[in-house]
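Example for tutorial group B:
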């Protein structure tokens, strides 16, 4: 899925080549079939080889995955998740990034979240 979200579309062969430690080509094809059956991806009709693309927008998947991580590892606490992220990246955040985060927190506060 990461490869498809980065590239927007890809064939099974392109996905196989892009994997860092790829399984067999058949395993990639089988996984793509399963992902398609579950509605995560689709292929463009009439294209041979099949050209696969994500069926769900990346921002929607991102939000769902993040919610799952927060619920699973942080007992549903956004504060704990953000605190952990800040602890891990405090030395790599620029002043501009910190200012933008400050602005987002201020906006959330004004909107009564």
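The residue assignment follows.
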């Amino acid at each position: 899925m990461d490869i498809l979200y980065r590239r927007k579309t890809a064939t099974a062969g392109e996905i196989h080549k892009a994997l860092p430690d790829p399984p067999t080509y058949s395993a990639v094809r089988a996984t793509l079939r399963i992902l398609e059956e579950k509605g995560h991806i689709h292929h463009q009709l009439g294209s041979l080889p099949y050209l696969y693309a994500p069926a769900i927008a990346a921002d929607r998947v991102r939000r769902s995955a993040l919610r799952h991580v927060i619920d699973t590892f942080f007992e549903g606490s956004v504060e704990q998740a953000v605190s952990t992220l800040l602890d891990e990246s405090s030395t790599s955040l620029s002043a501009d990034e910190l200012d933008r985060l400050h602005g987002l927190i201020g906006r959330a506060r004004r909107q009564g979240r």
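The chain has a mean pLDDT of 92. Compare this with the pattern of hydrophobic and polar residues in the output above.
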